[in-house]
Amino acid sequence: MKRTAFIILLILPILLLNTQPVLSAPPAQETIAPSIFIQSPREGQALQGVELLDGRVRGDGFTQGKIAFSYAGAPDPTWFFIADILPGDEGGAQTSFKVEWDTTQITDGNYDLRVVAEYNDGAAIYELIPNLRIRNHSPVETATPAPVSDDSTTDQIPTSTIEPTAANTPTPLPPNPAEVQSGDLYQVLRFSGLAVVVLFIVGGIYWQIKNRDRR
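-> structure tokens emitted (215 positions)
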């Protein structure tokens, strides 16, 4: 009985040495793709007085955005600044914006509205609302289209055009000396197992010699 227990104790550390420790990795977080949604105004809408520019920017790593306008259909448009969009206090990867635009400061005519969003990896996207009709001093030709209702139960992700920008190459972080790697843990277990095997072998030899002396 003692010999069987001794053999089991010798084999157990060897089995432990041949077992690779499995480290469970943390679950990967879902990445939210960059997008811009403009609730109001809509394409072709007639604007008068102070209009509310309402929308949201989504995507991980959003850093800043800009709202601007230009003359509609210009082949090489010049964009006139309206307002900045900064990451809000909502948390997560969504930033809502509500900006008042005083159209009385602009000559009546047709204009394009653009919202640009920039991200910390160097990417930039924009959403364009074309052919807005400012009619403060001239008659409105047709009825103003109603803004699209924002259904909170449906996640609307518009198609945004990616501007060609130079991609920033991320600089890898230096290794953390305090981080325990799987290879280090395996080496510790291997060394501990070898030490246990040596102790059991020495103890077994000592036990055999002691029993012979008693006989």
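The chain has two helices and nine strands.
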